[in-house]
Automatic annotation (TrEMBL):
GO terms for MF: transmembrane transporter activity
Membrane topology recorded in Swiss-Prot or TrEMBL: Multi-pass membrane protein
Name this protein carries in UniProt: Putative synaptic vesicle transporter svop
Region (Disordered): 1-21, 264-293
Record field: compositional bias (Polar residues): 274-284
Location of the protein in the cell: Membrane
Residue stretches spanning the membrane: 27-50, 78-98, 105-123, 135-157, 169-191, 211-229
Keyword Zinc: no
Lineage: Eukaryota, Metazoa, Ecdysozoa, Arthropoda, Hexapoda
SUPFAM superfamilies associated with the record: MFS general substrate transporter
Length: 328
C-alpha cells in the first residue's frame, strides 16, 4: 500500500512539472500558418521602416537643412555618423533586455520612442540638439539584426512560425530591411522636393522638418499595431508562464484556422524553463532572484560582459579579420 501511494505521488509530480506536455515546436506547429502570420509579417514592414528611417533620414535632409543648421563638411559628417555611434552602445544592451523583459516590450516601447524622436527632430532648430537626438535614436535602433527593435523583430516574428514555414518566411522578412529603407526614401522624394514653409508662433518650419513629422507615423502606427499581438509564446514558456503561452497559442490557432480556440489540439505545455537555467525554488526566492536579475546594474554587467570573449581566443583573430574586411 505504501508502494502504491509513492507511485501515485510520483505520477502527480510528473504531471505538475509539465514534463508530459508538448514542446514549443510542437505547440507552434499545431497553430498552422494563416491570417495571423500574414498580418504579423505585413506589420513588421512598418516596424522595419520606423527603425531604418533613423539611419537614412540624416543623409536625405542635409541638402535641405544645410542653411537652417549651418552645416559644413565636418558637421555633415558628424550628423550622418553619430547614429551609428549610438548603435555601438545599444548593441550590447538590447539582447539582454529582451531576454529579461520580453520581446514585445522592446518592440512596442522602441517604436513609440522612435516615433517620438522623429517628432522632436521636426521641432529642432539647433544642430547640436539634432546630433544629441540622433545619438539616442541610434541607441534605440540598428541597421543590422543584432540590437535594438530590429533585433527584437528578427527574434519575435519567427517565434510565431512552425519549423515548416520558418526559414522561407524569414527569407522574405529579411528583405524588409531593404524595403524599409526604400519606403523612407520614397517619403523623402514626396516631401523634401516640395517647398514647404509652416509658421507656428514665431518659428518657421521647412520641408525637412515636415519630413521628420511624417516619418514619425511609422513608429507611432507600428507601436499601436504591436499592441494587438501577444508576447512570444516561446519567451513565455522559457519563463515558466505556460498558462499565458497556451492562451496566446490558442488565439493564434483560432485566427489561422477560423475555429474556436477551445479546439486547439494541445492542452498542456512542457516546462521549458528548466532548459533556461531556472530551477524549482520557492515563490518568494524566485521573485527575489528575478528582481535582482532585472536590476539596471545587473543588466549592464551582463551586457558589457558579452564583449569580453571577443578580445580573447579563439575569437580575437576572427574579429580583427572581419573588421579589416568590413572597413578596408
Amino acid at each position: 500500500m505504501s508502494t502504491k501511494g509513492t507511485s501515485e505521488d510520483s505520477s502527480e509530480v510528473h504531471q505538475n512539472d509539465g514534463s508530459d506536455g508538448k514542446s514549443f515546436e510542437e505547440a507552434i506547429s499545431a497553430t498552422g500558418f494563416g491570417l495571423y502570420n500574414i498580418l504579423l509579417v505585413a506589420t513588421s514592414l512598418i516596424w522595419f521602416s520606423a527603425s531604418l528611417n533613423i539611419t537614412t533620414s540624416p543623409g536625405l535632409i542635409m541638402p535641405i537643412a544645410q542653411c537652417d543648421l549651418d552645416l559644413d563638411l565636418d558637421r555633415k559628417g558628424w550628423l550622418n555618423s553619430i547614429v551609428y555611434l549610438g548603435m555601438i552602445f545599444g548593441a550590447s544592451i538590447w539582447g539582454v533586455v529582451g531576454d529579461m523583459f520580453g520581446r514585445k516590450i522592446i518592440i512596442t516601447g522602441g517604436l513609440f520612442l522612435l516615433g517620438t524622436f522623429n517628432i522632436l527632430y521636426g521641432f529642432t532648430t539647433s544642430y547640436y540638439m539634432l546630433v544629441i537626438l540622433e545619438f539616442f535614436a541610434g541607441f534605440l535602433s540598428s541597421e543590422n539584426s543584432a540590437s535594438g527593435p530590429i533585433g527584437a523583430y528578427m527574434v519575435y516574428v519567427p517565434e510565431f512560425l512552425g519549423v515548416k514555414y520558418r526559414a522561407r518566411v524569414m527569407v522574405f522578412v529579411c528583405s524588409f530591411i531593404t524595403l524599409g529603407a526604400i519606403v523612407s526614401m520614397l517619403f523623402g522624394l514626396l516631401i523634401l522636393t516640395q517647398s514647404i514653409n509652416i509658421s507656428i508662433g514665431s518659428r518657421e518650419y521647412h520641408s525637412w522638418q515636415v519630413y521628420y513629422w511624417a516619418c514619425s507615423s511609422f513608429g507611432l502606427i507600428g507601436g499601436c499595431l504591436s499592441l494587438l499581438f501577444p508576447e512570444s509564446p516561446k519567451y513565455l514558456m522559457s519563463r515558466g508562464k505556460n498558462a499565458e503561452a497556451l492562451k496566446a497559442l490558442q488565439r493564434i490557432y483560432s485566427i489561422n484556422t477560423r475555429k474556436s480556440s477551445e479546439s486547439y489540439p494541445i492542452k498542456s505545455l512542457r516546462d521549458e524553463s528548466q532548459s533556461n537555467g531556472q530551477s524549482h525554488q520557492s515563490v518568494e526566492s524566485g521573485e527575489k532572484s528575478e528582481k535582482d536579475a532585472k536590476a539596471p546594474s545587473h543588466i549592464f554587467r551582463k551586457a558589457f560582459g558579452q564583449f569580453i570573449p571577443i578580445f580573447q581566443r579563439p575569437y580575437l583573430f576572427n574579429c580583427l579579420l572581419a573588421g579589416f574586411i568590413e572597413f578596408f
